[in-house]
Structures are given as structure tokens and as C-alpha cells.
Specification:
By secondary structure, the protein is mainly alpha-helical. Helix content is 57%, strand content 0%.
Length: 110
């Protein structure tokens, strides 16, 4: 975490038409995350209010690591879930995630 580097990165992203200010999974403390957000505030070019559900709740989440085996196969199970959520207004998200979870567990149990 370096203020000059954070600002340079944010400016480079903004100058190239990339999004600045989208939420990320913080890997450090909340204080450091908040400070880094202040550093790049002048470059933010996305509506922050749309990120509120994530940014207000991320600190209550328990991080979970990637699966130790079959990682790519498990990620592949999630591709159709994401596609359905993005393209089908009537997608049953709970059912899709339940099935993906069962299929992932089956891969891990092999």
C-alpha cells in the first residue's frame, strides 16, 4: 500500500477508459482499505452508490480459499450459473447455486 503507486494506478486506469472505484475484496485491514479509497477518490469514475451492498457487507464475510482440487472444473460449473443470472430474468438463482454446489462437491469427492 503506497499512496503514490495507488494514485498512479488509478490515473492510468482512468486515462485508458477503465473503471476506477469498483469494489475489490480487501486483503488488508479496513483502515488500510478505507485509506486507499481516499487516495484514489479523485479518479473514481463509477457510481459508488451502486456498490453499497458489497462495500457495506464485505467486512462481515469470512474469506474462503479456493478449492484445493478440481479448481478449474469447479469454476466451470459456475459459468452457466453466471450466464443464466445475467441473461434470464426468471433464473432460479438459489436452485442454480444449490445444483452447482452439489456438482462441485461430487467433483471433490471423486
Amino acid at each position: 500500500m503506497n499512496e503514490d503507486a495507488a494514485k498512479a494506478d488509478a490515473q492510468a486506469l482512468a486515462d485508458s477508459g477503465q473503471a476506477v472505484g469498483t469494489p475489490v475484496l480487501p486483503v488488508l485491514s479496513r483502515d488500510l482499505y478505507d485509506e486507499s479509497q481516499q487516495w484514489i477518490a479523485e479518479f473514481v469514475n463509477v457510481p459508488q452508490d451502486q456498490m453499497t451492498p458489497f462495500t457495506e457487507n464485505i467486512w462481515d464475510q469470512t474469506p474462503a480459499g479456493e478449492p484445493k482440487g478440481k479448481t478449474q472444473e469447479i469454476y466451470a460449473l459456475l459459468d452457466p450459473v453466471v450466464q443464466a443470472v445475467l441473461t434470464d430474468e426468471s433464473a432460479d438463482i438459489d436452485a442454480l447455486l444449490t445444483q452447482a454446489d452439489q456438482d462441485a462437491q461430487a467433483l471433490l469427492d471423486q
